[in-house]
């Protein structure tokens, strides 16, 4: 499997570079049917270097302002830049003419209001920001941000040791401790996976709250550093940026009962309608992998008035794409323009038509 994975990556890289550096991207774009490509990120690291959130967020949650601007400039010269909602509306109309690219950001971070919004205005472009409602309503953050903050102040080994001392969830502790004993590479990432999928949510949250306080943390101050306010969200909407729903607490929806999923999605939607004066029409499943949501999630999103929903699976979207399983391409500092361009021009979609999938 390791060899197959490496081979696939090498083929993907070589194919993308061929399309990008030879100019074949433009030819493939004209030959393939029009499509909507959605880029997906989280935070935009400002060129000024003043970024309160930057001390603890993992690398895969941010992209430098300059790099993002280069992407916006390149795609804007070749495609039409739209919001997710506007792109889906065009899909509904049959999407003829120039293909579309939509930039989206998840969660509602403050740098989206202070860095992303001016960037898009400079380029006369739109985009979509999906908002968790609890950080804006209550100035409270989800468990993952507490975990990131704690690990910025203690080693993974120290975290696991204290988790074992404080938690009644010994199954999660033993799973994490085993990873420590094995000297697992990228330990922080694997600890997050245990907390995300295997730990008892209530017990995980209780222990993280205790460790946050133990290390001198203040949840409200952390939220203020990370997340925008409703006033900033309203200003973004006035500038032409679409705001979409992303639940109240950013849970793994598929791990919740159907009524709990409905509550998370609907209360988030109602909060946005109350604060923004109009209902949100686009939705992003928290975490976004196909195992993170299910048909109950889709039904709840429909019932809450959303007209489409995005995932975190790679690919492009056509008029035939399920509106509640829209594909997106992740972007962060490691994102490579030639790979994004090969996807956006329809290059990887061309291969999929003959049974070759190099995207994931």
Description:
- There is one protein chain.
- The chain is α/β, with parallel strands linked by helices and 360 residues long.
- The chain has two domains: 2-140 and 226-352, Glycoside hydrolase/deacetylase (TIM Barrel), CATH 3.20.20.370; 154-214, no CATH class.
- Helix content is 52%, strand content 11%.
- The protein contains 17 helices and ten strands.
- It has helices at residues 2-22, 24-31, 65-78, 84-92, 110-122, 133-138, 143-151, 156-166, 170-181, 187-198, 201-214, 219-226, 230-238, 258-276, 295-303, 337-344, 347-352, and strands at 36-41, 43-45, 62-64, 80-82, 100-107, 128-131, 242-245, 282-284, 308-310, 329-330.
- The strands form three sheets. Strands 1, 4, 5, 6, 7 and 10 form a six-stranded parallel beta sheet that branches. It has a two-stranded parallel ribbon with strand order 2-3. Strands 8-9 form a two-stranded parallel sheet.
- α15 (295-303) links the parallel β8 and β9 (308-310).
- α7 (143-151) packs across α11 (201-214) and α14 packs parallel to α15 (295-303).
- It starts with a helix and ends in an 8-residue tail after the last helix.
- The mean pLDDT is 95.
In short:
By secondary structure, the protein is an alpha/beta fold. Helix content is 52%, strand content 11%. The longest helix has 21 residues, at 2-22.
């Amino acid at each position: 499997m390791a060899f197959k994975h490496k081979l696939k990556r090498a083929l993907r890289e070589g194919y993308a570079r061929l399309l990008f550096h030879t100019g074949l991207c433009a030819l493939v774009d004209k030959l393939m049917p029009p499509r909507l490509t959605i880029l997906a990120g989280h935070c935009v690291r400002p060129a000024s270097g003043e970024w309160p959130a930057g001390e603890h967020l993992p690398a895969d949650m941010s992209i430098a302002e300059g790099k993002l601007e280069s992407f916006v400039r390149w795609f804007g010269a070749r495609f039409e830049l739209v919001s997710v909602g506007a792109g889906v509306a065009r899909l509904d109309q049959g999407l003829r003419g120039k293909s579309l690219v939509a930039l989206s950001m998840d969660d509602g971070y403050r740098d989206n209001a202070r860095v992303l919004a001016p960037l898009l205005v400079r380029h006369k472009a739109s985009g979509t920001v999906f908002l968790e409602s609890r950080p804006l309503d209550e100035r409270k953050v989800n468990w993952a941000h507490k975990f990131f903050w704690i690990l910025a102040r203690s080693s993974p080994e120290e975290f696991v040791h204290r988790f074992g001392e404080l938690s009644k969830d010994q199954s999660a502790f033993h799973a994490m401790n085993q990873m420590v004993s094995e000297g697992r590479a990228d330990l922080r990432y694997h600890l997050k996976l245990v907390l995300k999928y295997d730990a008892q949510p209530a017990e995980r949250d209780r222990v993280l709250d205790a460790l946050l306080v133990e290390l001198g943390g203040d949840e409200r101050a952390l939220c203020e550093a990370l997340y925008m306010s409703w006033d900033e969200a309203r200003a973004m909407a006035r500038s032409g940026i679409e705001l979409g729903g992303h639940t109240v607490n950013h849970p793994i929806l598929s791990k919740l009962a159907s009524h709990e999923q409905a509550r998370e999605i609907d209360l988030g939607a109602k909060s946005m309608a109350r604060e923004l004066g109009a209902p949100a029409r686009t939705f992003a499943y928290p975490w976004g992998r196909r195992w993170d949501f299910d048909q109950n999630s889709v039904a709840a999103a429909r019932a809450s008035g959303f007209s489409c929903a995005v995932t975190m699976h790679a690919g492009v979207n056509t008029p035939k794409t399920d509106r509640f399983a829209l594909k997106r391409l992740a972007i962060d500092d490691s994102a490579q323009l030639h790979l994004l361009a090969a996807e956006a021009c329809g290059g990887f979609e061309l291969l999929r038509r003959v049974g070759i999938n190099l995207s994931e």
